[in-house]
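Dear Dr. L.,

I hope this message finds you well. Following up on our conversation about the binding site, I have prepared a predicted three-dimensional model of the protein together with fe (ii) ion. For your records, I am including the exact sequence and ligand specification that went into the calculation, followed by the structure tokens. Please feel free to forward this to your student if that is useful.
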Amino acid sequence: MAFTLPPLPYDFSALEPAIDTLTMQIHHGKHHNAYVTNLNNALAGKPDLETKSAEDLLRNLDAVPAEIRTAVRNNGGGHVNHTAFWQWMAPKASGGGGDPQGAVAQAITSTFGSFADFKTKFQDAGAKRFGSGWAWLILKDGKLIIGSTANQDNPIMGDAIAGVSGTPILGLDVWEHAYYLKYQNRRPDYMAAWWEVVNWGKVAELYATAGGR
Ligand SMILES: [Fe+2]
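The resulting structure of the complex is given below.
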């Protein structure tokens, strides 16, 4: 069963002005689509792997044959990360932006001092990620932590590969392809604007599913 590109859960223009339409079209239709195609190409002819979920492949990269491990790491990571990323955003009319609510909001405040302090620390993680990668809010051993990974690595790959581990409940793509058309080299401006479209309802759902309280 080949992996497929999931449709965006909103229009390409729905995240304007924080994220521009052309960036969304290229990011979803070209970049994410290429990860899906390349993942399928890597797994072709390996039926024992083709039946696994992308998450299962990433959690057990050691079980992937060495000759395709890097391809699965990069393209499986790209597929999983982007599938989640589209859901971590929502148009304002559908609840994007604003402040987190409920248990996850309380956990953010108690862990990082305040929502504003959390945003500063999260953006700092994204700003310090040299080159391409992601900033993450992760639930690990019942506690929230902020981390970042290179390229398309994901915390579910584990510390040895990703440099951080746990269950991601929010992630921000800081690859230039995510912002360059509108923000050029101004990654901090992109990150600051991104809060306007964060889907805190999805974050709360993932926090609860991961066992956060
Ligand atoms: Fe991306």
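In brief: The pocket of fe (ii) ion is lined by residues 27, 31, 82, 173, 175, 177-178 (CB under 6 Å).

With kind regards,
A. P.
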